């Protein structure tokens, strides 16, 4: 107690001499006009590497000013003799503590990178450090449970301890026109300028979800590729194609320009569904009654498409057992159909899964021909990881059944990408390019925030 009183008395001497020197941040409670500081109050933060508590009044008197303050206190006639060494130590500690605190602040305010993959089922968001090498925060949200993307993004940014991002790259499941995207299977509208303003992010880029997925295919580890052919896709010096059935059907192309791949979006999933057999003709008629305006491949190759295939075959069955009906009514109906079909526990479900995979393989072969993707075809999405890998023979048989062009497709490698974050990887690659390239006059921009808001 006696030592503490001596320290407080010494600090009071220093504070009275330097009451006019207000702390720049205005956070220490000093007052102008020679009024005394709140001497004797201590900040409980530890000095960096010192193991001692730093005095709050000395936070502003660092470096040479701290030394001058100590010397001024030393010339006071009524100063207790034993207080000066303690004052010197505390002033020096305060200088080291203040310098360390500023260094940590400068490091922490380096803006992060926000990347995301926005789909009809899930929205995946991640924050990376400024270099894009280290993930700082990640989360997955159910898209349909939220009224807008901002309802997801704002709480995600606020709750994260990461620095506020300066760049955001978001893959969206839908066409983008004039920097505005409408999500095909969600009532969401995303505009780059509005997101930049509302999220307080200087640079926002919207990209097609299959574009970021395709870019991610160039950066995934070897272990995340499950080949369906003897050879793996050859990214370098060849065109590539990417297809993904999920909430909808997405397709994209990676065209080699002689130096690098150009990633281009398509809306090929909305092309006309072309039946290949008598059963598929009946399926088309069944779907045309549900969708009289247009029957596209997405009406078949999607989560809801699998459900429609089951309904098509179940309508041919005598009846659906009550146990099956109860299982379909519990939880995710399409997932239950997938499980029943793979286990061959109910014939309509098994036939639905088989035909789904066959049509999937046929459309993947169509895409390989359209893009002349001799380097390979990547198949993305949770459906591919579960159904295509389990029925790979059916998939490849339909992929190759192209008449006179079958020999050409026999040399095209095909692989399923098992990494669920492939879209996030692609968005991160684009974000790093934006960060390296700097300003883009055509991009919507705003003043970057100095700190997280």
TrEMBL record:
GO terms for biological process: glycolytic process. Keywords: Kinase, Transferase. One of its GO terms (molecular function) is ATP binding. InterPro entries: ATPase_NBD, Glucokinase. Residues 8-30 have a biased composition (Basic and acidic residues). Residues 1-64 are annotated as: Disordered. This is Glucokinase. It comes from Sorangium cellulosum So0157-2.
């Amino acid at each position: 107690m006696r030592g503490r009183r001596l320290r407080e008395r010494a600090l009071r001497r220093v504070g009275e001499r330097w009451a006019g020197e207000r702390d720049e941040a205005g956070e220490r409670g000093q007052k102008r006009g020679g009024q005394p500081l709140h001497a004797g109050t201590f900040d409980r933060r530890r000095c960096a590497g010192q193991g001692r508590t730093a005095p709050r009044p000395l936070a502003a008197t660092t470096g040479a000013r701290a030394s001058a303050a100590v010397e001024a206190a030393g010339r006071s006639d009524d100063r207790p003799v034993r207080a000066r060494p303690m004052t010197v130590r505390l002033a020096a500690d305060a200088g080291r503590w203040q310098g360390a605190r500023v260094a940590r602040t400068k490091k922490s305010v380096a803006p992060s990178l926000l990347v995301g993959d926005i789909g009809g089922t899930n929205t995946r968001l991640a924050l990376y450090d400024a270099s894009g090498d280290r993930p700082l925060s990640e989360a997955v949200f159910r898209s349909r449970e939220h009224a807008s993307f901002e309802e997801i993004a704002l709480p995600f940014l606020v709750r994260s301890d990461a620095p506020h991002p300066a760049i955001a790259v978001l893959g969206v499941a839908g066409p983008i026109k004039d920097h505005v995207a409408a999500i095909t299977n969600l009532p969401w509208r995303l505009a780059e300028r509005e997101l930049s303003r509302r999220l307080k992010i200087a640079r926002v880029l919207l990209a097609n979800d299959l574009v970021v997925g395709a870019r991610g295919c160039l950066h995934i580890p070897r272990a995340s590729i499950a080949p369906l052919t003897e050879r793996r896709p050859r990214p370098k010096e060849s065109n590539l194609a990417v297809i993904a059935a999920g909430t909808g059907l997405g397709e994209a192309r990676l065209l080699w320009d002689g130096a690098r791949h150009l990633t281009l979006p398509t809306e090929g999933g909305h092309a006309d569904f072309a039946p290949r057999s008598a059963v598929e003709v009946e399926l088309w008629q069944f779907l045309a009654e549900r969708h009289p305006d247009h029957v596209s491949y997405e009406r078949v190759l999607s989560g809801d498409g699998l459900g429609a295939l089951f309904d098509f075959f179940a309508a041919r069955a005598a009846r659906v057992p009550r146990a099956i009906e109860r299982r379909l009514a519990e939880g995710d109906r399409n997932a239950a159909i997938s499980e029943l079909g793979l286990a061959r526990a109910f014939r309509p479900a098994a036939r639905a899964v088989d035909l789904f995979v066959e049509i999937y393989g046929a459309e993947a072969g169509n895409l390989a021909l359209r893009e002349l993707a001799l380097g390979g075809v990547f198949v993305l999405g949770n459906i591919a990881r579960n159904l295509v890998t389990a029925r790979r023979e059916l998939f490849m048989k339909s992929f190759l059944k192209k008449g006179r062009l079958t020999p050409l497709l026999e040399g095209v490698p095909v692989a399923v990408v098992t990494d669920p974050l492939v879209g996030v990887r692609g968005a991160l690659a684009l974000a790093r390019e934006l960060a390296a390239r700097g300003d883009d006059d055509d991009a919507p921009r705003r003043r970057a925030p100095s700190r997280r808001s």
